[in-house]
């Protein structure tokens, strides 16, 4: 399996390429593309939340705790004073750091259901929901932001599968197939739970119609194609 640095580097690279493509397709503005790059990179390390490495797990949860606390605080920024916002931030941070973290660590195992394609879909939907309900993102932007987290997530799973094949010694490791899976046969209740969670988030998240009609259309790809190379062959031309 790939190490943390590899996941971080490859996740950032894939997210950077995708964010650049979103600029070329007019799906995002420069500031939005930076956010997409950031969340995609974060998604690239999320599957390791179930890691047996306590240090790595603590680092990732530290990042998530801070992110979640600020996200909730910003939601109420126009309502409460700075002192009240600071208290909200602290409560949210401690809730994730010492509440969610403890529960997650006790009820997950490495390469379990959290290391799977449906888990990636669930994370996509919950990020979409959070962006729409808490950050007041438009529907399309919410879905694209969630998709970038999913993209990073899937990149992580693909890397783990690639590292399960040892080409130099021409052998396949026992970990092959434990990342890109649809069901965790060793944890059927957990597998059922993740699919029920997906259904629940589909009901809570905004409709995906605008996302599908915008991203998966020929017009989007035509725009990307037009912006792929300089017009009239004038490279680095400054008008």
Structure description:
- By secondary structure, this protein is mainly alpha-helical.
- It folds into two domains: 1-51 and 111-217, no CATH class; 53-109, no CATH class.
- The chain has nine helices and two strands.
- Strand 1 and strand 2 form a beta hairpin.
- The mean pLDDT is 83.
Layout: helices, strands, pairs:
Layout: H1 4-24, H2 30-43, H3 54-75, H4 82-107, H5 117-133, H6 139-162, E1 165-166, E2 171-172, H7 188-204, H8 209-215, H9 218-226
Antiparallel strand pairs: 1-2
What is the gist of this entry?
The chain has nine helices and two strands, in the order ααααααββααα. By secondary structure, it is mainly alpha-helical.
Strand tally is 2
Instruction: Give, in spatial order, the strands making up the sheet with the most strands.
Output: 1-2
- Please tally the helical runs, counting DSSP H or I stretches of 4 or more residues: 9
User: Which term fits the overall shape?
Assistant: globular
Low-confidence stretches: none
**Proportion in β-strands:** under 5%
Overall pLDDT, averaged?
83
Structural class: mainly alpha
Radius of gyration in whole Å, from Cα? 20 Å
User: SSE order, as H and E?
Assistant: HHHHHHEEHHH
Distance between the termini: 49 Å
Total tally of structural domains: 2
* Main β-sheet description: 2 strands, antiparallel
* Fraction of residues in helix: 55-70%
